[in-house]
Backbone:
């Protein structure tokens, strides 16, 4: 699975390099055997953002993208769109992506929903169905597992303590919102699957096999 994520990142036009940050030597070996770069990070890192921040202390870059390792179906175009969303304004510090979500999937707690303002700022993220359909069917948005950060912001985010909303929903981006940071949400070109459950894995494998046999 991790090699599909690496391939997607390598195919993006906007990245100058791709690094897999992990505390698992098996993952590092797999990545290096495939000719990609892996950096061992602390097993004490609580999130992917903490791992990216750890690597960022070793390297120099203006911005960083955190493409989560459980997103084997992420399109390279989405990686570029996350970067474009970040760079669309000089004061933007964090960017991510959302896509339309069919109402039938809004109640799934493994699918993270986003409420987004008209100007593109993310208002909230939740495992619950937001907004609540009190009057009519709302336009649900699914949050994709990708972030782009300014380098100066990434270090500050990694220093933030856990927050009440983050702990309640188990969503680290709520820590940033509670810390006063704006998260800008661009429109993804296609959906992806974060592999969190056996059903997710089966669906990801089905889609990958379908792509392999497509003409």
Residues:
């Amino acid at each position: 699975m991790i090699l599909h994520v690496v391939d997607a990142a390598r195919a993006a036009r906007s990245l100058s390099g791709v690094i897999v940050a992990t505390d698992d030597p098996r993952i590092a070996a797999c990545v290096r055997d495939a000719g990609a770069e892996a950096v061992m990070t602390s097993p004490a890192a609580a999130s992917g953002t903490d791992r990216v921040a750890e690597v960022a202390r070793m390297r120099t870059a203006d911005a960083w993208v955190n493409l989560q390792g459980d997103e084997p179906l992420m399109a390279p175009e989405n990686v570029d769109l996350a970067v474009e969303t970040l760079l669309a304004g000089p004061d933007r510090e964090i960017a991510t992506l959302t896509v339309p979500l069919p109402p039938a999937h809004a109640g799934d707690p493994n699918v993270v929903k986003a409420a987004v303002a008209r100007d593109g700022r993310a208002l909230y993220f939740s495992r619950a169905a937001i907004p609540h359909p009190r009057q009519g069917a709302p336009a649900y948005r699914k949050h994709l597992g990708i972030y782009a950060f300014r380098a100066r912001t990434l270090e500050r985010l990694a220093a933030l303590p856990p927050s009440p909303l983050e702990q309640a929903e188990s969503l680290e981006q709520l820590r940033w919102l509670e810390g006063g940071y704006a998260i800008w949400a661009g429109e993804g070109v296609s959906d992806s699957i974060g592999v969190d459950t056996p059903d997710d894995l089966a669906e990801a494998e089905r889609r990958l096999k379908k792509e392999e046999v497509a003409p």
About this structure: The two ends are 22 Å apart (CA to CA). Residues 198-213 form the longest helix (16 residues). The mean pLDDT is 92.
